[in-house]
């Protein structure tokens, strides 16, 4: 391969005749995505990358980015070029160094961690951030103390990356808990949210610092409040001892009352049910205006409207919350409520089970509502209510399988799968296997899996949906089909399922391993292929293959 007059190489990955340098790509109207697609389709040409790594900084950066994109599936190429990658860490251009760090992270080249640690104190904030994130990707929890100074960095993005690394370490991240807690007051909203998530992943530390997280329930930033609520959702009743008093006070705070009510629901704070129920009056949604202007992301309605937050919290409080089912039902008649608020109230009421049984008629009426969001919520309620609604509303639910809105069809299919006698509706679900929307097909497959022996007559169709390579880009459908075959114990299709081990999509390979684990003696014939899959470059695939091998051996 020889350079052209302008120094570009006649590589195979550019749409035109050249691969490098960067200006040749731009002249040919190329994009990184197009080059990457070609590189994945064809056998990568290592000399092309080597030539580029000796060119200018843009070319070197581009080559390393291409390498980073393929090393997870083709790690041998990365190892061949390891000397060049390590040399790039000493490059004068920060973009080249960043790309090299990314390659090492993808390769999980832990033997080169000392070089990565050097960047934690680099003057360039981007490099400090990349090295901190790389430590997370390499699971370098044993070097937690090296990361501690990054949690007090002057740059918010560096702090966020360090927190992400600590979060990825799970329980091991709690070694940095004292430094993480200080980040709860960080000026950067993203850093605050990451700090909450780190504490969420640390069982012991999360309970110890629940009181400090409770203060964030009234933070002016919506995403911070959302993260704090998620913290208490994970912690559950264990958060009561240290956070109850602070959270209870916030029910009177106009900013924090929604988040506080939801947190109390997750805590199962039954003695607070009456106080929470006092919020069951239509309130104002000030956050909606902020979302409309783009100043804040639009979060769930329960975090924005007091009546929705209260209904949600009460639905988690069992008998004490159930006493207020009538109050929630009365709000459904308020025509001034926004559609999303009414939908939220429908879901909360349905979650109260027998306490809401007196309002079956009202809930069923929403199955025929002109607003699709309310029809979808009514389908959700149908599935949650179980036997209390099935006999009366089944015809209306079946009619929604032909709804004009895909989300309604999807939710109706899910509700059918939750019925005690879902096997009676196998043929109705099978019709959705030809739905034009992949998400609806995937849900129909999932619901079929709960229909028992009656669904086995459709096993051949399900198998075809699993192995069809024409469904490129619809891996969700193929994965659902494979999982359904596994749940059906459709061992007659073991060979077809094992054939998916060579699929280019790691999600499909993992789903195939999960399915084969259910096939018993027929699955054992493919143990050799399963063993090969245990060395897959993707962790999810390896984990599924390990579980499959154990199940088949057992």
UniProtKB/TrEMBL annotation:
Domain of life: Eukaryota
The entry's keywords: ATP-binding, Nucleotide-binding
GO molecular function: ATP binding
Name of one Pfam family that matches: HEAT_2
InterPro entries: ARM-like, ARM-type_fold, PBS_lyase_HEAT
Name of this chain's protein: Zinc import ATP-binding protein ZnuC
């Amino acid at each position: 391969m020889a350079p052209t007059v302008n120094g570009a190489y006649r590589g195979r990955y550019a749409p035109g005749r050249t691969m490098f340098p960067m200006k040749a790509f731009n002249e040919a109207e190329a994009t990184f995505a197009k080059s990457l697609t070609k590189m994945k389709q064809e056998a990568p040409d290592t000399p092309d990358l080597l030539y580029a790594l000796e060119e200018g900084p843009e070319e070197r950066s581009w080559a390393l980015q291409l390498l980073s994109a393929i090393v997870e599936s083709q790690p041998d190429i990365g190892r061949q070029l390891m000397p060049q990658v390590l040399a790039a860490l000493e490059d004068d251009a920060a973009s080249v160094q960043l790309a090299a760090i990314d390659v090492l992270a993808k390769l999980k080249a832990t033997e080169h961690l000392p070089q990565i640690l050097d960047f934690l104190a680099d003057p360039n904030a981007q490099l400090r951030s990349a090295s901190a994130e790389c430590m997370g990707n390499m699971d370098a929890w044993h070097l937690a103390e090296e990361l501690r100074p990054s949690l007090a960095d002057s740059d918010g993005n560096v702090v966020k990356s360090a927190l992400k690394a600590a979060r990825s370490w799970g329980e091991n991240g709690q070694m940095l808990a004292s430094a993480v807690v200080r980040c709860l007051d960080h000026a950067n909203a993203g850093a605050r949210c990451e700090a909450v998530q780190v504490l969420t992943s640390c069982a012991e530390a999360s309970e110890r610092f629940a009181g400090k997280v409770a203060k964030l329930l009234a933070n002016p930033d919506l995403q911070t409040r959302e993260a704090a609520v998620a913290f208490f959702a994970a912690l559950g009743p264990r958060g009561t001892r240290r956070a109850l008093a602070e959270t209870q006070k916030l029910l009177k705070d106009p900013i924090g009352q929604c988040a506080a009510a939801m947190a109390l629901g997750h805590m199962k704070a039954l003695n607070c049910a009456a106080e929470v129920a006092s919020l069951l009056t239509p309130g104002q949604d000030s956050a909606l205006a902020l979302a409309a202007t783009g100043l804040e992301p639009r979060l769930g309605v329960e975090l924005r409207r007091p009546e929705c937050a209260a209904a949600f919290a009460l639905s988690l409080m069992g008998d004490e919350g159930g006493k207020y089912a009538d109050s929630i039902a009365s709000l459904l008649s308020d025509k001034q409520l926004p559609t999303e608020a009414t939908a939220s109230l429908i879901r909360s009421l349905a979650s109260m089970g027998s306490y809401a049984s007196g309002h079956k008629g009202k809930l069923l009426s929403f199955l025929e509502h002109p607003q699709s969001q309310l029809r979808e919520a009514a389908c959700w309620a149908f599935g949650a209510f179980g036997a209390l609604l099935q006999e009366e509303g089944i015809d209306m639910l079946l009619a929604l399988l032909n709804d004009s809105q895909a989300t309604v069809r999807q939710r109706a299919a899910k509700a059918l799968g939750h019925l005690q006698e879902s096997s009676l509706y196998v043929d109705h679900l099978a019709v959705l296997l030809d739905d034009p929307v992949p998400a609806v097909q995937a849900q129909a497959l999932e619901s079929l899996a709960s229909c028992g022996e009656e669904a086995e007559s459709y096993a051949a169709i399900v198998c075809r949906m699993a192995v069809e390579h024409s469904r490129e880009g619809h891996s969700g459908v193929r994965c659902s089909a494979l999982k359904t075959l596994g749940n059906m114990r459709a061992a007659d299709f073991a060979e077809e399922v094992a054939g998916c081990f060579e699929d280019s999509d790691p999600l499909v390979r993992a789903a195939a391993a999960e399915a084969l684990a259910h096939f018993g003696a027929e699955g054992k014939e493919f143990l050799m292929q399963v063993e090969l899959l245990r060395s897959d470059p993707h962790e999810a695939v390896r984990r599924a293959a390990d579980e499959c091998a154990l199940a088949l051996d057992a």
